[in-house]
Design brief:
Helix content: 40-55%
Number of strands: 8
Strand order of the largest sheet: 4-3-2-1-5
Order of helices and strands: HHHHHHHHEEEEHEEHEEHHH
Largest sheet: 5 strands, antiparallel
Strand content: 5-15%
Radius of gyration: 35 Å
Distance between the termini: 106 Å
Length: 398
């Protein structure tokens, strides 16, 4: 009985000493963390696993050396075995936390609150997915080491730890949808097809990539709903990525109006509107007649903005303003259905209505920049080269 009491006292004393030492290290690290980001991350993420691992290790050593009188006893073997399993789990937790600290310290150097953050978002996406993968590998290795402590299943544990065993397990599970999504997540991270904070259109919904894991992707819809999709969706289904190369995007607002619409006056009104709005990024402002069938004229306003959110608001603003402008200043251009009765040689009534202010008439060869999408401005010239080709574009000019 006295020997058992000595073992209990030794275990408690070892645990107390370990906790005291860990607390001292924690306080020193926290004080140094005021000047070092790495130390700060260590105090936040690694304190608890370090505390558990140190305590379990101290208790295991105390029990081992204080129970020499019971060598070969079944209870001693069971207690030491449990402590070894706990030590393996705690050590795995500690290693995983240290990897998280290293990754967070590396990510802190990349800021996402800047306008051109495409490269930063790509790096963050890859690091986050690698973090999840490394944690999964650590768990597998820990389970393998634990299995090796059981004589009956030691062969299974050794097989998990060997490269052939790991490859066999992965290959066997690769056909399953879960690991298929894991591989798809890694493919997304390193193919640069989609990144965190990318603006995408999936399943007819417009949103932002909020979370990207090894098995699923969370898309934050514009109205704060969440669309959760498996990562394999983005490798097998076409989707729109509005910010793959840059955040700036183009958008349209279309109007069905009467043939009497003064296009140049409407074009000038669009230009005046966007130049007075902070939503416009100054790149593209074009108004064109894209169709003239069915008794009405389809007019399309093409504008640009620095990001998808600003573009949405700008398109709504263009619609509201031009609808009001047509209604108040060009009421004869509102959509209508005509029926002509009698001789068509006379002047139609709508032709007698003159605009309230003179409209500048352009020469036949004088085409303004805001009447062309693929030409005129520098941005239009660049777009023309992308969609037409440099040689074809040069031939078209001659």
């Amino acid at each position: 009985m006295q020997s058992y009491l000595v073992t209990v006292v030794a275990a408690l004393a070892a645990a107390a000493i370990a906790l005291l030492l860990v607390e001292v290290v924690h306080r020193v690290t926290r004080r140094l963390g005021r000047r070092s980001l790495l130390m700060t991350e260590l105090t936040e993420h690694s304190h608890r696993p370090f505390q558990v691992a140190g305590t379990v290790l101290a208790v295991q050593l105390a029990v081992r050396f204080s129970t020499l009188y019971a060598v070969g006893s079944p209870w001693r073997q069971v207690v030491l075995h449990i402590l070894v399993l706990g030590l393996i789990a705690a050590a795995s937790w500690l290693v995983a936390s240290l990897l998280v600290v290293i990754e967070d310290t590396a990510l802190a150097k990349f800021r996402v609150d800047v306008p051109n953050n495409r490269h930063v978002r790509r790096v963050r996406t890859q690091v986050v997915l690698l973090r999840r993968l490394t944690i999964a590998v650590i768990v597998v290795l820990a389970v393998g080491v634990m299995l090796m402590t059981f004589p009956a299943v030691r062969g299974i544990g050794a097989g998990v730890l060997t490269s052939a065993g790991v490859f066999g397990v992965v290959a066997a599970l690769a056909a399953q949808s879960l690991l298929g999504n894991v591989f798809a997540g890694l493919q997304l991270a390193f193919s640069d097809a989609v990144r965190l904070d990318d603006v995408v259109v999936v399943e007819g919904e417009w949103g932002r990539i909020e979370e990207l894991t090894l098995s699923y992707v969370v898309v934050q819809i514009w109205d704060d709903r969440r669309l959760i999709l498996p990562t394999s969706y983005f490798t097998s289904t076409p989707f729109e990525n509005w910010t793959r190369t840059e955040a700036a995007v183009l958008g349209t607002a279309e109007f069905d109006v009467d043939w009497s619409i003064p296009v140049q006056a409407m074009r000038e009104e669009l230009r005046r509107l966007v130049e007075s709005s902070e939503l416009w990024d100054g790149r593209v402002c074009v108004l064109q007649v894209t169709d003239a069938t069915g008794g009405m004229v389809k007019v399309r306003a093409l504008v640009s903005a620095a990001d998808a959110g600003s573009l949405w608001d700008l398109r709504c603003l263009v619609r509201e303003h031009l609808v009001a402008w047509v209604r108040d200043h060009r009421p004869t251009a509102l959509p209508r259905m005509r029926a002509e009765v009698g001789d068509a040689t006379g002047a139609l009534p709508w032709q007698a209505v003159q605009p309230r202010r003179p409209v500048r008439r352009l020469a036949d060869t004088d085409v303004p920049d805001d009447a062309r999408v693929f030409g005129g401005s520098d941005d239009g010239e660049a777009r023309s080269e992308v969609f037409v080709g440099r040689e074809e574009h040069a031939d078209a000019r001659h």
